[in-house]
Amino acid sequence: MPDKIIIFDTTLRDGEQSAGVSFSKQDKLDISAALEAMGVDVIEAGFPAASAAEADAVAAVARRTERAVVCGLSRCVAADVDIAGEALREAARSRIHLFLGSSDVHLAHQLRADRATVVSRAQSMVSRARRFTDDIEFSPMDATRADPAFLAELVRAVLAAGATTINIPDTVGYALPSQVDVCFRQLIERVPEVSRAVLSFHGQDDLGLSTANAITAVAAGARQVELAVNGIGERAGNTSFEEVVMALKVHATSLGVRTDVDARGIYALSKLVEERSGLAVPANKAIVGRNAFRHASGIHQDGVLKHRQNYEIIDPAWIGHPEGTQIVLGKLSGRAGFAARIRDRGFRASGEALERAFGSFQRLADTRREVSDADLDAVCAGEGLARTSNG
């Protein structure tokens, strides 16, 4: 039986930390409802101690969510823990997510605390959080740059205090996949009792490696991944929800894992988050970008028309894409793509008639980035091609 990978979505928390993004309470309710409908396991609804309005929004999500775990982020500060616990009080299933720096650079230049103080504070706050829920996640922030021996010491301490999920954050998007692999395997070797908890990975995309790092973490033993829709988040963003969910689907057999996410909601979810966040999805964004299933090269058009899997490893229907595979005509398009598109427009041509029309199309395409349907109709009409009754 494949191992289940817990999908933890942080769009409403870390995603909201994107510069220029501010979700309203209604935004959080709408996005969390879409996430729950898709089968997402954990929804990190926000950082309750940030403001009274944020605490109210997290509480609203907690009240409305029936199946998924609703999570609130908290610093290892007593007041933060209490505010998070109160915000989550009406949740059917709640989690408090605690974080504290673990790398020497964070200890020296942000926390200005020694290792013993950090361990003591982490233990104390995990114990305090357990007054509100028995589902406690702990993140040793900047773990991929931390001393492995100290990371193990800190993880051992919070496990003893009652943490049930240990999340390893690549907080500044620093690590290579090989380093993520070593980090997880060393931690499992140094702290055998971590097997009683769920190991998780949270990656930032500063070097464009977050999806690769997440899949590497899964291969090394992580059974939860922390993701954000459209990859939104601090600086260059978080690990992309759609990329990881689909990578786990495509490679489920070789990885020996599964998720409970219904991927057919991905496209609509991406559009919802794009609208509410105000952050446009790049055209070449994997999975959900406008060009993800559009083919402009003649060679690719010919191949995908003969057999979709020649050039598509994902069926657009898997993510609920409303249009599916598209042939886009331009100066690099070949006869196969041109013929297919004019058939779609209701024109029929072969032999010399097709060659004449294709020649006219090529001359036009040299002057356009993309040949529109109206342009195509004009080319066909100009060459005297008859339109069928279905055109």
Describe the structure.
The chain is α/β, with parallel strands linked by helices and 391 residues long. The protein folds into 2 domains: 3-277, TIM Barrel, CATH 3.20.20.70; 294-382, no CATH class. The protein has 15 helices and 12 strands. The strands form 3 sheets. It has an 8-stranded parallel barrel with strand order 2-3-4-5-6-7-8-9, surrounded by 8 helices. A two-stranded parallel sheet has the order 1-10. Strands 11-12 form a two-stranded parallel sheet. Strand 8, helix 8 (210-220) and strand 9 form a beta-alpha-beta unit. Helix 14 crosses helix 15 (373-382). The chain is elongated, with a radius of gyration of 25 Å.
The total count of strands amounts to 12
Oligomer: single chain
| The CATH C-level class name of the largest domain | Alpha Beta
Major sheet summary line: 8 strands, parallel, barrel
Radius of gyration: 25 Å
